[in-house]
Design brief:
- With 152 residues, this protein is mainly beta.
- Helix content is 11%, strand content 58%.
- It has one domain.
- The chain has an 8-stranded antiparallel sheet with strand order 5-4-7-8-1-2-3-6, with helices on one face.
- A hairpin with a 2-residue loop joins β7 and β8 (142-151).
- The mean pLDDT is 79.
Protein backbone atom coordinates (compact mmCIF):
# COMPACT_ATOMS: atom_id res chain seq x y z
CA UNK A 1 0.00 0.00 0.00
CA UNK A 2 2.71 2.48 1.01
CA UNK A 3 4.75 1.68 -2.13
CA UNK A 4 1.67 2.36 -4.25
CA UNK A 5 1.15 5.77 -2.68
CA UNK A 6 4.81 6.69 -3.18
CA UNK A 7 4.72 5.55 -6.84
CA UNK A 8 1.56 7.59 -7.49
CA UNK A 9 3.17 10.55 -5.75
CA UNK A 10 6.34 10.35 -7.87
CA UNK A 11 4.28 10.02 -11.06
CA UNK A 12 2.36 13.16 -10.05
CA UNK A 13 5.59 15.13 -9.59
CA UNK A 14 6.88 13.91 -12.96
CA UNK A 15 3.62 14.86 -14.68
CA UNK A 16 3.66 18.32 -13.16
CA UNK A 17 7.27 18.88 -14.17
CA UNK A 18 6.62 17.54 -17.66
CA UNK A 19 3.91 20.13 -18.30
CA UNK A 20 6.27 23.04 -17.98
CA UNK A 21 7.57 25.35 -20.67
CA UNK A 22 11.15 26.46 -21.25
CA UNK A 23 12.03 27.55 -17.76
CA UNK A 24 14.42 26.63 -15.01
CA UNK A 25 13.00 24.15 -12.54
CA UNK A 26 13.80 22.64 -9.19
CA UNK A 27 12.15 19.48 -7.86
CA UNK A 28 11.67 19.12 -4.11
CA UNK A 29 10.47 16.10 -2.16
CA UNK A 30 10.04 16.04 1.62
CA UNK A 31 8.61 13.63 4.18
CA UNK A 32 7.40 14.88 7.55
CA UNK A 33 6.49 12.43 10.34
CA UNK A 34 4.99 12.88 13.80
CA UNK A 35 3.15 11.04 16.49
CA UNK A 36 0.70 12.07 19.19
CA UNK A 37 -0.96 10.15 21.97
CA UNK A 38 -3.44 8.40 19.67
CA UNK A 39 -2.44 9.18 16.07
CA UNK A 40 0.59 8.96 13.76
CA UNK A 41 0.80 11.23 10.71
CA UNK A 42 2.96 11.16 7.57
CA UNK A 43 2.96 14.14 5.23
CA UNK A 44 4.67 13.51 1.89
CA UNK A 45 5.11 16.61 -0.24
CA UNK A 46 6.62 17.02 -3.66
CA UNK A 47 6.92 20.23 -5.60
CA UNK A 48 8.32 21.71 -8.75
CA UNK A 49 9.51 25.32 -8.61
CA UNK A 50 9.54 27.00 -12.00
CA UNK A 51 11.59 30.09 -12.60
CA UNK A 52 10.93 32.16 -15.69
CA UNK A 53 11.46 35.67 -16.98
CA UNK A 54 8.54 37.83 -18.07
CA UNK A 55 8.95 41.43 -19.09
CA UNK A 56 12.52 41.36 -17.76
CA UNK A 57 11.40 40.23 -14.29
CA UNK A 58 12.27 36.91 -12.72
CA UNK A 59 9.18 34.99 -11.58
CA UNK A 60 8.89 31.86 -9.46
CA UNK A 61 5.78 29.68 -9.42
CA UNK A 62 5.26 26.33 -7.77
CA UNK A 63 3.23 23.19 -8.34
CA UNK A 64 2.78 20.89 -5.37
CA UNK A 65 1.37 17.42 -4.78
CA UNK A 66 0.90 15.89 -1.36
CA UNK A 67 -0.29 12.80 0.47
CA UNK A 68 -1.34 12.98 4.12
CA UNK A 69 -1.79 9.69 5.99
CA UNK A 70 -3.31 9.56 9.48
CA UNK A 71 -3.01 6.25 11.34
CA UNK A 72 -4.97 5.57 14.50
CA UNK A 73 -2.83 3.74 17.08
CA UNK A 74 -5.74 2.32 19.07
CA UNK A 75 -8.38 -0.31 18.33
CA UNK A 76 -11.16 0.23 15.81
CA UNK A 77 -13.72 -0.21 18.60
CA UNK A 78 -12.41 3.03 20.14
CA UNK A 79 -13.72 4.97 17.13
CA UNK A 80 -16.92 2.96 16.63
CA UNK A 81 -19.16 5.54 18.31
CA UNK A 82 -17.37 8.63 17.00
CA UNK A 83 -19.66 11.03 15.16
CA UNK A 84 -16.91 13.00 13.43
CA UNK A 85 -13.17 13.25 12.94
CA UNK A 86 -11.59 16.54 11.92
CA UNK A 87 -7.95 17.25 11.32
CA UNK A 88 -5.69 20.04 10.25
CA UNK A 89 -2.09 19.69 9.08
CA UNK A 90 0.12 22.72 8.52
CA UNK A 91 0.81 26.15 9.87
CA UNK A 92 -2.63 27.62 10.53
CA UNK A 93 -1.17 31.02 11.41
CA UNK A 94 0.29 31.44 7.92
CA UNK A 95 -2.66 29.93 6.07
CA UNK A 96 -0.59 26.96 4.85
CA UNK A 97 -2.94 24.45 6.42
CA UNK A 98 -4.99 21.57 5.07
CA UNK A 99 -8.19 20.80 6.92
CA UNK A 100 -10.70 17.98 6.48
CA UNK A 101 -13.84 16.75 8.25
CA UNK A 102 -14.95 13.12 8.20
CA UNK A 103 -18.25 11.72 9.35
CA UNK A 104 -17.27 8.58 11.17
CA UNK A 105 -18.89 5.18 10.71
CA UNK A 106 -18.35 1.79 12.28
CA UNK A 107 -16.74 0.59 9.05
CA UNK A 108 -14.10 3.34 8.90
CA UNK A 109 -10.54 2.09 8.56
CA UNK A 110 -7.92 3.06 11.10
CA UNK A 111 -6.05 4.87 8.31
CA UNK A 112 -7.24 8.08 6.65
CA UNK A 113 -5.45 9.22 3.48
CA UNK A 114 -5.85 12.51 1.66
CA UNK A 115 -4.20 13.36 -1.64
CA UNK A 116 -4.15 16.77 -3.27
CA UNK A 117 -2.38 19.21 -5.52
CA UNK A 118 -1.89 22.93 -5.87
CA UNK A 119 -0.69 24.35 -9.16
CA UNK A 120 0.60 27.71 -10.32
CA UNK A 121 0.92 29.13 -6.82
CA UNK A 122 3.55 31.29 -5.21
CA UNK A 123 6.53 29.39 -3.83
CA UNK A 124 5.28 29.94 -0.29
CA UNK A 125 2.86 27.00 -0.78
CA UNK A 126 5.91 24.76 -0.30
CA UNK A 127 6.85 23.79 3.22
CA UNK A 128 10.53 24.30 3.93
CA UNK A 129 12.78 22.17 6.11
CA UNK A 130 12.62 24.84 8.83
CA UNK A 131 8.80 25.10 8.82
CA UNK A 132 6.86 23.87 11.81
CA UNK A 133 4.00 21.64 10.76
CA UNK A 134 1.28 21.40 13.37
CA UNK A 135 -1.23 18.57 13.50
CA UNK A 136 -4.54 18.76 15.32
CA UNK A 137 -6.93 15.81 15.24
CA UNK A 138 -10.34 16.13 16.89
CA UNK A 139 -12.52 13.06 17.50
CA UNK A 140 -15.82 14.16 19.04
CA UNK A 141 -14.07 16.88 21.04
CA UNK A 142 -11.08 14.78 22.12
CA UNK A 143 -8.03 16.52 20.66
CA UNK A 144 -4.60 15.09 19.85
CA UNK A 145 -2.09 17.84 18.91
CA UNK A 146 1.55 17.41 17.93
CA UNK A 147 4.19 18.54 15.45
CA UNK A 148 5.66 16.88 12.38
CA UNK A 149 9.41 16.73 11.85
CA UNK A 150 11.28 16.52 8.59
CA UNK A 151 12.64 13.02 8.06
CA UNK A 152 16.08 12.97 6.46
Amino acid sequence: MKKGIIIIFIIGVILISGCMNNSEQEIIQRLYIGEGNEWMVEYLMGAVIKESVEDGKSLQKADKVFVITLKYKGKSEDLADAEYITYSVGDTSSGKSIEEIFESSKNEPLIITMRGAQTGGDIDIIEGPEDIIDVRINVDGKIDSFKLELKD
